[in-house]
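This entry is listed below:
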Amino acid sequence: MMGDRDYRKTITSAADAITKEVDLQVAEPADNKTIYLHEVTRCMRRSYYDRFERLEPETKGFGNLFGGLIRKLPYGSKMAEFAIEDIKLKGQSDMIVDDIVIVFKTVSIAPETPFASDILYLNACMWISGKQDGVIIYITGDGSETSFVSAKEKKMFEEVIRRVRVFSNLVGERKVPILEPSAECTQCQYYERCYIKRNEGKQFSLTELFGLKNK
């Protein structure tokens, strides 16, 4: 701190302002006919709490803003929509270049294989955008990047559609989704809601669902 000015507070305020501009969108809490893609390709319990009992994460890194900032630029992609009966599934990749869907992710360590939730998101973006090929680009803090190419896959998108229907029903009935354990849990702002109380009912992981490495 220099003089009487709190520079850490200034930086935090600036980060919060940027986050509000580029953060992933969430539908009106009770609107179970509008579902955003990120809500169903990650833990649906977390997405449910974001709608009805939202808590802001304790820490926010600039790395989480990377994809959002790209989407705001002229060459960023636009929100796309896919109809599932009377449900509108909305999703947005970071870029579409030469008909290739591109999603950027910032990570501390580059993965050997794409994370399950990321490949599921990328594949759904290809279906929603009507494209055949996609790339996930993982960028680490030192600026190195690791890329994974993927072709559009029907069975994986069918799983997304199933999860959209499940999440829509749970939102409509105001029922909390079942627990989907993953490595992300320890960093989740809702961790204590899931693990302090006794967990009941069946539990399964996103890794088990998709047979891929999870975060």
